[in-house]
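Below: protein 1.
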Amino acid sequence: MQAGGYALYRRIFDEQGRQTTALLFQCEASPGRADREAIVASALAHVFAPLDQELHRLTVNLPVANEATTRILQSAGFSTLAEQVFMTRPLA
């Protein structure tokens, strides 16, 4: 059976080797899976663990279209700090 989801993230540590930051870049689950939100929730729990430790927990460039991940992060207390805008200009 294939993995149903994945998370791309980075953990940052201080000079003493203590984790200071959990930085999420991407978190997805296979489209159409009935357990999609559970997969995303499990991946996010792993990324942002340990939950009892004070860390900077953030995500960057997360697509708004990634509704499952966005919904779970918002319910966990995450909020939008900045948004990116994609702009184009036709060459004439």
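Below: protein 2.
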Amino acid sequence: MKKKVVFSICVVFILISCTKKEVALPKEPLSPTEQFVLQKLMTDKGLLRTDLTDQKELFLSESVGLWLAYLLEKDDQIRFDEQVQVIKTFFLTNNFMVWRIEGTKKASVTALIDDLRVIRVLLEAGEKWDNASYIQLGKEIGENLKRFGMVDGLFVDFVDVHSHDKANTLTMCYIMPAAFQQMAEHDLLSQEQMEQQITILQNTPVSKEGFFPKYYDLFSKSYVFDEELHMIEQLYTAYHLASIKKDTTPFKNWLFDLLARDDKLYGRYDAETNKPAVKYESPAVYAMAARYMLELNEQQMAQQFLDKMTALKDDPKTGYVDYYTKSTHIFDNLLPLLAEREVNNAHNDELE
């Protein structure tokens, strides 16, 4: 009789263990783009390659942040936790996140936009999943960035992880209000410090055509426009402005005028002539345009940009890869993944 009881307990324990394992599995089904990232661009150590070429492998903190942001939107804590371990194992140096790893060689500087993205996502994930370790890591990176990555109370583009030498510029598209708000909520920034960062963004001038400056120079306290406009940077700036309810109508009109004229968006434009400076379209540009539209609560336009984005796929069953050259870039896969998920989540929220 005792043997039967023991056997029954073991069976129940096994069933419970199996059930827990099933619950813990990463979210399914995977999209073709996500499968491509996991199967082709992710190494067995969880690092994300930038491309598929045979050159020395390059891994970016940008990729880590975008992947984490996507997994948070997807509610996939298992893979999220795996990528947090990648940060701890490979990217952290003296509590700084280096901006790139080439082969096994770490860069000596950070990148503000990537740091802020990771901090924001870690803090939000910690709250969402009640995980104190995510919050702790986000605070450690944030505290270090605040201590060494500021000039006259403003964050700057980069800081050297060893010498603590800093940039004297603040690129406009790096100013991420959502990250500053999270940092303030977790006592990493005072209200005054948060507002100081956001004020630089709020006060950004707009050209007569409608586009934004590239950076703010801390020495001259002036905004500087570029001769060539990177559409990703312009869209990020518009997106961040829209996130704090700043009117971006001049930029939106400029964007729509370009789209109406060419029936597409190019990767770069000449600031003086308004003509395309390159011949290519970018999935990431359309993804960022969709995210910007979502911030403006224009879901129909967001979907239209997503449609243009997916039309760039040579094969709908894989990621964004050039059919002939087989070239790709992880940025052109991760940002589309994030945009698709955010638009999908917004649509589902609207239906509820």
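The chain has a mean pLDDT of 91.
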